[in-house]
Amino acid sequence: MTEAEVLNQLIAGRRTIKPDQYTGELIEDSIIEQILNSANWAPTHGYTEPWRFVVFTGEGRAQLGDFLAYQDQPDKNVADFNQMRYDRLRNRPLKASHVIGIGMKRGNNPKVPEIEEICSVACAVQNMWLSAHSLGLGAYWSTGSMAFTEQTRNFFGLGENDLSLGFFYIGKPAIPLPAGRRLSGIETKVTWVR
Ligand SMILES: Cc1cc2nc3c(=O)[nH]c(=O)nc-3n(C[C@H](O)[C@H](O)[C@H](O)COP(=O)(O)O)c2cc1C
Q1: CATH code, 135
Q2: Pocket residue to mutate for ligand 1, from 102, 142, 186, most atoms within 8 A of Cβ
Q3: Cβ(142) to ligand 1 under 6 A?
Q4: Does 31 map to a domain?
Q5: Helix pair 29-39, 114-134: axis angle to 10 deg
């Protein structure tokens, strides 16, 4: 295969694989470092390199699980407290090998608006996702209600001008890669001007 064919196959074959679909095995930190290094090659406007990551593994995953469950339901004594939901959120990070908290560190270059920094972080996450996929690992970008909160931003150690952008779960897949699905082909999303 040509380099382009290999790349296209990796891009089209990458899938969302969620924590329930992981074996629970731990991945070597050195492999995760390789994946993180791919993030660092994302493009930016003005070399701002705004991606910041917090890697939760080992006991760190339990800290993240406690945080997520508590943020969702801080009071166990209310009538509608849902223990099953609490436990599900708390245990989710433990099903992954590593969970990477995704952050955007706002620079002070006035030529670079915030939206460009967010775009760059998304490029960085896609790099990690492709890198994980190429290594045979499952990965999943989770947002949900906690991704963009001030509490999560603080939990990641970010400042008030920064943003948290969710959680990137990585694990060894216990399932074959699911088939990809797109609702319509690219031709329905493109306008050519000639
Ligand atoms: C920014 C972003 C946030 C996402 N957040 C969630 C989420 O909170 N819950 C979820 O089930 N999937 C989430 N996903 C994964 C998408 O659901 C998934 O990528 C989509 O179903 C396409 O599947 P594929 O990645 O296998 O092609 C997110 C994806 C992106 C890019």
Answers
A1: 3.40.109.10
A2: 142
A3: yes
A4: yes
A5: 140
